[in-house]
Amino acid sequence: MKGYGQYCPIALGAEVFAERWTPIILRNLMVGCHRFCEILDGAPGLPRSVLVQRLRRLERHGVVERSGSEYHLTRAGAELAEVCLALGVWGARWREVLPEHLDPYLMLWALSRLIEPATLPRPRIVVRFELTGGHRPDRYWLVATDKGNEVCVKPPGFEEDGVVTADAEWLMRWHTGAVSLASAQLAGGMTVTGPPWLDRTLGVWGRLSPFARVRPVS
Question: What is the pTM of this model?
Fold first, then answer.
């Protein structure tokens, strides 16, 4: 990436941060993706070769450090990640969410990265998400365990604790904290089939987004 050739802190910072895919890579590192394949999983459309280039560049700038097969944010990287959060607040407040932005897999993947294993009410929770509205695939499984979480597009082989049915828009509104689970159910946008403890757990998960309290400007 060609620099701006300006002695300006904004220009110097933008030379590192404002390259395509870099904010997404930083976001994924920030939510605990440390292996190459984990970073790639949370960035649909990112070519492997581009991820290699971006990680090398971030290493050169002292934003990322590599330890064996894992990548971690340095102190400088952690500070730059705060820029990602500020950008997300701005995006949540001022940008309109369009139908092409509603990727159910990515929403559930992001949610899975926010669920702390230590907060689970039991060692493993399996929730099937049924997507209405013509999305393909239209079925996902979120598996949360005390060892880590994942999103599957095929049955994971564990007993299901419950089923959530919603379209992609209601899933997004719940995931981002725009509506509570109770409000979504009352409005008929989401249904939950499962025991009461699952309702309580899903209610907590719907408030995990760092942008849950940001309201868009109408």
Answer: 0.90
